[in-house]
Amino acid sequence: MNVNPKIISKKNENLTTSKESYNRLNNIYQSYKNILFNKKLDRVQNTDMKSWYGNYEGHFLRMEGESADPRGWASIQLNMNKDSIIFHISSYVEEKTFRLKVDKFDTKSIEFSMEPNENIKIIKTNSESYIIKSPYINDRNAEKNEVKLAKAK
After folding, report:
1. Alpha-carbon distance 114 to 87, whole Å?
2. Which residues pair with 96 in a beta bridge?
3. 153/135 Cα distance (integer angstroms)
4. Calpha distance 122→147 (Å, rounded)
5. Is residue 120 within 8 Å of 114, Cβ to Cβ?
6. Is the separation of the CB atoms in 137 and 147 below 8 Å?
7. Cα separation of 79 and 134, whole Å?
8. pTM for the complete prediction?
């Protein structure tokens, strides 16, 4: 039997091409599978996010040594709902409002980012008590202690 080497090399090329096609299709399938899985995961996370929705309030001493003077205090309001997250700080010295973006969350804590390059973390200590941590608040807190938040009912 006489075999032409050109035919054999063409068959090998076709086999390689078929293998590449299979790998390409498999990669596309895996990509779509991951996209669908991640969308399903996002829906589950958004459901869990609902437990964080609500209004939170807290206060801290803004001006050192002025605890008897109401102007020495600052108040914090945080309003979370499905559409937006608003952080408001009010004191004698400043009054600012920020829109926050959720970076990550779980059942015990939630982290936000705000402009300019600041972050806020809220930690759930028990069913009705929360602690807010942020360099932005620490810079304004005269006592440098933890700032507690209460969720409005």
Report:
1. 9
2. 89
3. 28
4. 10
5. yes
6. yes
7. 17
8. 0.65
HEC string of the chain?
Answer: CCCCHHHHHHHHHHHHHHHHHHHHHHHHHHHHHHHHHHHHHHHHHHHHHHHHCEEEEEEEECCCCCCCCHHHEEEEEEEECCCCEEEEEEECCCEEEEECEEEEECCCEEEEEECCCEEEEEEEEECCEEEEECHHHHHHCCCCCCEEEEECC
Residues with Cβ < 8 Å from 102, sequence gap 6 or more? Answer: 49, 85, 110, 111, 112
Rg (CA), the chain: 28
Mean pLDDT by 10 residues, the chain (153 residues): 56 60 71 55 57 90 84 91 90 89 88 85 86 88 85 84
The residue written with tokens 């972050």 in the block is: 119
CA distances from 12 to 1, 3, 5, 17 (A): 20, 14, 11, 9
CA separation for the pair 87, 84 (Å, rounded): 10
pLDDT given at position 18: 74
Q: How far apart are CA 38 and CA 40, in angstroms?
A: 5
